[in-house]
Amino acid sequence: MVDSADAVRLLGILPAEPTQARRFGKARTAQSSALLEDYVELISDLLSSGGEARPTDIARRLGVSHATAIKTIGRLKREGLASAKPYRGVFLTDDGERLAERVRARHRTVVELLLAVGVPRETAEQDAEGIEHHVSDATFSAFERFLRRG
Which CATH number fits domain 15-93: 3.40.50.9100, 1.10.3720.10, 1.10.10.10, 3.40.50.720? Predict the structure, then answer.
């Protein structure tokens, strides 16, 4: 028996407008959050490894311009995830550090899942950078259950 979601895929019928809008809205929200998540994870890593997270280092490691890094750091500050001190770089708030830990844990789980299904390590690391931000909590929980069964 074919349900309506399968029929949409099989027949190429568009989903109802509210359904499609919800799906695209979720993707846009995830993209916006992914940017902040990448920044807090990197800042946390830089602070842990070298004690300092300078905007110049952040920009270079993320492959963005210095101006883009400064703009996003400003957003992190407005969202209460980071603080910056003149001539001392960027620091995470407690909320920022908690977010970095959450993202790091999600990344590790996604990499483990991809490795478990036969994806080469470097590809798994690259793909996890997108997947970790975009999967729902329900999907992520399914990943964790799958890995526990292994």
Answer: 1.10.10.10
**Protein fold of 99-149:** Diphtheria Toxin Repressor; domain 2 (1.10.60)
pLDDT digits (tens, 9 = 90+) for 62-82: 999 999 999 999 999 999 999
**What span, in angstroms and rounded, lies between the C-alpha atoms of 10 and 85?**
56
Residues ≥6 apart with Cβ < 8 Å to 77 = 83, 84
Query: Model-level pTM?
Result: 0.77
Share the mean pLDDT of the chain: 88
| Predicted local confidence at residue 10, as pLDDT | 57
